[in-house]
Write a structure and sequence with these properties.
3 helices; mainly alpha; DNA-binding transcription factor activity
Length: about 140
Amino acid sequence: MSSIQRSASSGSDSDPRYAAVDERKRKRMLSNRESARRSRVRKQKQLEDLTNEVSRLQMGNSQLVQSINAKEQAYVAFESANNVLRAQTMELTDRLRSLNSVLQIIEEVSGFAVDIPEIPDPLLNPWQLQCPIQPIMASADTFLR
């Protein structure tokens, strides 16, 4: 029975060279396991960091989309109000022309000199106001919406 035990434990127990090689293998295996564990931990941390960055960027993106939508709605509202003002300007210009024609008829019939105002074309110089008007102050909220 002792011969069976000797053959099973062949050289590693009896030869110190084999024991040193086995010890180095064991240390290398432990080192490799530890390195693999650190690598897994590092990859897990990178994955968590990237996941957090994705959620942060998605939140920022949704905030930008909401901001763009709000600005588009404000633009549509301003454009609508601007169209109403343009229509009112055209209507008032037509009324002024009608009143000027009535004044011309009165001037011709009565012979009195009547001051007939000139009708400016708002399309030629839209930036020039026809009469002094108080400046319109816009609030900061108007542009931030």
